[in-house]
Amino acid sequence: xxIILNQRDRSILNAIVRxxxxxxxxVGSRAIxxxxxxxxxxxxIRNIMSDLEDIGLITQPHVSAGRVPTETGLRFYVNSILxxxxxxxxxxxxxxxxxxxxxxEVEELLKTTSKMLAVVTExxxxxxxxxxxxxxxxxxxxxxxxxxxVLMVLVTEAGLVQNKIIEIEDKLSxxxxxxxxxxxxxLLSNLTLDQLKxxxxxxxxxxxxxxxxxxxxxxxxSNQAFQEESEGEVxxxxxxxxxxxxxxxxxxxxxxxxxxxxxxxxxxxLLEKSINAIGIxxxxxxxxxxxxxxxxxxxxxxxTKGEYPIGTLGVIGPTRMNYNRVIPIxxxxxxVVSRILEKKI
Length: 345
What we know:
By secondary structure, the protein is α+β, with helices and mostly antiparallel strands. It folds into three domains: 7-82, Arc Repressor Mutant, subunit A (Orthogonal Bundle); 89-129 and 232-343, GAF domain (Beta-Lactamase, 2-Layer Sandwich); 133-227, Enolase-like, domain 1, CATH 3.30.390.60. A hairpin with a 2-residue loop joins β4 and β5. 46% of the residues lie in helices and 18% in strands. The protein is elongated, with a radius of gyration of 26 Å. α1 (7-23) packs across α3, α6 packs antiparallel against α12 (323-341) and α7 (174-188) packs across α9 (213-225).
């Protein structure tokens, strides 16, 4: 259903949302009438509130209380009323300086980003590790450990290193493994991991008479190594920040929320929805489709390597979070992380 509000109704909804974000308390008509930007009587405001309640934008927690915005009301506010202010230059410098101190390692950058977002927004922060399946393969190496155990080292263009110990049927010397390494690097260069897996399978289907025994073994080992892609990693910081908000004062609500943080898989799936989206993504309350995160909003943005989105970062907080402040921070942070990955900062 498309909701259309006139300017007067929009101003009252805006006042309710802004006051609720600031106080976490139901907002009454008398409080709104005292605002300098509202020139309406309490009686008129009550009539407008009644209309807004009828169409599901606000609700009354109990009979004698004022009104609070519903999820639908918050969604309308974010989509149609909120006017984002540009991030202050001092805030931009703070974010840049914080992240530039993380060093050259990609994983350290992402961990630092999560910590920074938690500190700056006073919410919980989430940053996903780039999905190896979506990143471009740069280099592979096999290192003999002992007997039939081999360490596979996979390096992506984004600078991530993935190590995996595999057990092979035949004992191979390090010189033989070096030959496997050279062959696979020539065969698989500039492919994503998904493309790499497909390429290995295609090569294995070809007439094996075209390959000597060692190169055939290289394909078999590669296929074994890439059979299972590990679940994505996500860095979470600032969990305890959420304990300051009255929405999470009940132990059961907080326990469920921390369960989602602990299991991570639900959050990872949410972040994966955002990786190919354009710009900021905002999930309000039930839009997260995570029951354990009832009463939460999530704001995310993808970060890129070159033209390709490879991961997602964001913030988790109460549905009454200060969207006007948090959205520009998340957006700018994603841009800074992308520029650092491109070595442009």
